[in-house]
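Most newcomers find our protein records easier to grasp once they have seen one. A learned vocabulary of local backbone shapes supplies the integers on the structure line. Here is such a record, shown just as it appears in the course material:
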Amino acid sequence: MVLQDKQIRVLLSWGISTVEIVEDEHAAANDSRDDEVPDLSAEARPTPEMEEQADTILAERFRHCDLTGHPMDGIYSIARAQLIDELMRRGHKARSA
């Protein structure tokens, strides 16, 4: 599958700036990189407040989507992980109303 410009713009608008291309689904399923969970320090993990802020932001962005089924459940998970990473890089800042 080749992504079209419109699809790339949507991914970028959701904060997804990079993707990993996998040609062989079987090889991806057996990829050992995901098996090892690194032991992160408390500073390297998102706070509950960061997770709550990410969920609030994404609830607005995905308000018209059914997140219970494929492919939106996966897209949401990726967008959430990217947003939490961004919040961690910037430091947790409360959104002004």
About this structure: The two ends are 41 Å apart (CA to CA). DSSP finds four helices and no strands in the chain. Residues 14 and 79 are 6 Å apart (CA to CA). The mean pLDDT is 80.
